[in-house]
Fold these 2 entries.
Entry 1:
Amino acid sequence: GSPRASLRDADVLTPAVGDWLLLIAAMLATGAFAGVLAGLFGIGGGVVIVPVLDTALSILGVDPAIRMHMAVGTSLATIVPTSISSSRAHWQRQSVDLDVVKRWSGYVLVGALAGAWIAAQVHSRVLAIVFAVIALLVAARMVFMPEVRSVTNELPRRAWVPIIPTLIGMFSALMGIGGGVMSVTALSLFGMRIHRAVGTAALLGLAISIPGTLGFVAAGWNDPRVPPGSIGYVSLVGFACIASTTILTAPLGARLAHAINERRLSLLFGLFLALVAVRLLVRALA
């Protein structure tokens, strides 16, 4: 109980408090930015949330083997309220195709559970690489093919069609995203108008985010490496900070979407996504 010992303890505590404050500030800012993106592009914001959380958790000294699991699980949890508020707004504008939601949501849900299970079996580095590669493909589409030309005029009912929502669910749960970008692209290819595709994708995001979140909670339930304030691989601190600001800024993004030229919007988002993906790839392969 000497003064020197208690001073030493204080030295150990001070950076930890500073790190927590920095983490909270970073998460509030991330939520605000993700909310704007959600409104702008009809996405859950996971493409922003995952890399920022990964960085924030590394500052806190979370074990690298589970860092990406924590980032992805927490991101999926924040997408639940975002999807609810986004799909409600689109529902009021009659831009949600309930028939597609009914036909696709079961497959999306199965895919999301499979994705969460696969994620639990692999090292964080593998998750980072999967995220980066898919993000680069999406970025390339946004930059080079912003206007998706439809292949058919209606959703085909052939036997292979359920593969599409199943894969959307699986890759979205692996990446910690609501699947908006993938769902909107797929629905546009089947001739659905963009606003209707965005609204439908927002509701399908719930069929990804809820089972995905539960999968990550279950996978990390007894893992001793998770940081304090977590249930499984979901950080409750991260969820509270990000979800609170996302909900506030989503309407701003929706307003901005109507003020900016659509081609320029796709280009900006694609370039931003490419930067994020390259940075994650470099870190994962280093």
Entry 2:
Amino acid sequence: APRYHAVVGLDVGDRQSHYCVLDLDGSVLTEGTVATKEASLRVLFEGKGRMRIALEAGTHSPWISRSLIALRHEVLVANPRKLRLIAESDAKHDRADAHLLARLAHVGPALLSPIHSRSAQTQIDLAVIRAREVAVQTRTKIVNAVRGMVKSTGHRLPASSTLTFARKATETCPEALQPALLPLIRLVQTLTDDIAAYDRLVAAKARAYPETQAIQSIHGVGALTAVAFVLVLNNDRARFKRSRDVGCYLGLKPKQRDSGKRSPQLGITKAGDPLIRRLATQSAQYILGPFGRDSALRRWGLSLASHGGKNAKKRAVVAVARKLVVLMHRIWITQDTYDPMRGIA
């Protein structure tokens, strides 16, 4: 017998959400709207008997799913990348979306490709890393804008690292552009100081998650990538039965659209969290770069990069990133120290 007495589709909006309630025969019992607030959802769903509630993953889905689970309901958070029935519908509106979510949860929950919701603490810890990423991207955008505006007047700022950019740019900025650019240069310095503060927070997070120390034994993987990896996977080592599945989950697997005798070479799926995919790619670039230490992974990647034309290096970086996340997951599980020459006679 079902462990619930009704099925609910909840189309979550920023201010208000639409819901549709079905009985176990699939008939509509009720539908309506509710404010997207914890108190309002509690009034609607508290003390109503166990329900199966489906909603799409989004900004509000983590706290909503935790609130509904606390009320003893079964919650399915649908993967929007897989739910094309809603995204590509010709009659898309909130009421219809809620109805469709309820129907899918009723006839086949697997069609929703449900995802795992993170705990409140994991979400808070991950916010530090995401905030740092915003600061880094903002700094990069400002640096590029300042350099571009200086070039447009026939001048050029000296080459520098991001750590010394503000000082060198202040010293060499053309006088005519100083009223426009000095405020931006000061922002770069502020962001650089803030990023250093974020790095200290990340180092503290790494100490709070001691299992990341084994992952950091991989040369080219630092505290930031190790902590982000553990948090993105919801701090759940047993989530994947096979470590190789992690590469697919993080969108590092090539797309496949074979037809007849044609098997075109396509880009990666880019599914999953873009943050950890970007960090893994940066680590792969370091491993293959001039400062990377000799290892089986580096040798394999350099071999790939030496064959296949002008795009071989890019494909090699992605391939190394894919192998890297699989290796990170394996070391996370076993807590073994990384052996860089494993597999080489």
